[in-house]
Amino acid sequence: MFKIQTLNNISVFGLERLPRERYEVATEIQNPDAVLVRSADMHKIEINPSIKAIGRAGAGTNNIPVAKMSQRGVPVFNAPGANANAVKELVLSGMLLAARNIPQALDFVKKLDGDDHAMHKAVEDGKKKFVGFELPRRSLGVIGLGAIGVKVANAAVELGMDVHGFDPAMTVNNAWQLDSRVKQALSVDDLVSKSQFISVHVPLLDATRGLINADRLKLMKKQGVILNFARAEIVDEAAVVEALNAGTLHAYACDFPSNALKGNPRVIATPHLGASTGEAEDNCAVMVADQIRDFLEVGNVRNSVNFPEAVLALAPGATRLCIVNANVPNMVGQITTALAKNNLNISDLLNKSRGDIAYTLVDVDAAIPESVAQEIAAIQGVLAVRVIPAK
Ligand SMILES: NC(=O)C1=CN([C@@H]2O[C@H](COP(=O)(O)OP(=O)(O)OC[C@H]3O[C@@H](n4cnc5c(N)ncnc54)[C@H](O)[C@@H]3O)[C@@H](O)[C@H]2O)C=CC1
Ligand SMILES: O=C(O)CCC(=O)C(=O)O
Fold first, then answer.
1. Where in the numbering of this chain does the ACT domain appear (predicted)?
2. What is the pTM of this model?
3. CATH superfamily, with its number, for domain 1-82+275-307
């Protein structure tokens, strides 16, 4: 029986992927094997040594101590692209709300009173305050052309916008998805200076903290709109508020309300709703639950943010050793020597690495005694060892 702890609400469609006869799933559970999480801040909680994997039902993993988990030999999985359409739609809403001054107009309508005649008159007199602009031929700069950025850029092209993108580490797969009408910016500054709208779709990292700052806001075109549906810290909020108040920035649409932004009529803030659609919640939960199950039951690694991709079919009757080790010479040599010394025959083997971590799957055609697993665990550089008994 595997025990799974949920730290946030996880869609029932995802939880149903974990069969009840083999999985116990609860918010409070002793010695869990794995955790399913959305935005709960795992930096602030003790992570039980029993935990073998963490599944983030979403994209960003800045709420998880990934480096610490790597040192413990624990893979962190996420759900790449599973909520990208939901975020794209909210970004498009932000662009339209900002361009047409909709929040201010809705506020005006809420405050209307008097009889219908008086209201109609106030509407016709007042609407000139909310004259907006249209999107075709307006420029949009997209920083980060990953799952979300590509969708935003492509949709904006379809709306007739002039779109530039910047991403120094774009994947080949994302490059294949990107509309050929999206132009390549040479740097963030180059992109900013060409853009009236800027949308950020990068993870929160040291390199992306404060990516949009006072200097870059000054480079933007007039009536600028910043869209931040990535993470609050990517945009320097104080600089944005200053530019909004000075009238040099038209609007800030973001998913991260704060006291500094509260009450500012040019701020369009949603309560971290980017991934909050039924479809996105289901997609993320299903994807990550499948990945956690494949890891716990077979040792396979798909879509981990700190482990290499490692998928090896498990032959019936084979016992599998899953070993996480430092990516240094002679680890596989020491592991296979330990098995040979104990007269265990290897039927299949996979060794993959990513950065400092290597992951080795070894299939053996006999049961592996606990003493052999312990011998391998004692090899210097081995971070974690798990035996998956033959089915
Ligand atoms: N508001 C919400 O509810 C949601 C927010 N997010 C946020 O959006 C972020 C992006 O999500 P995805 O597109 O799914 O991730 P992704 O991993 O598919 O794409 C991120 C892209 O950013 C690029 N990148 C990294 N550093 C960069 C830099 N300094 N300059 C330019 N590009 C850079 C990467 O090369 C990658 O292509 C997540 O990390 C998360 O923080 C994601 C989903 C929902
Ligand atoms: O689970 C959520 O609602 C947050 C989604 C998010 O921020 C992400 O996927 O990075």
1. 320-391
2. 0.97
3. NAD(P)-binding Rossmann-like Domain (3.40.50.720)
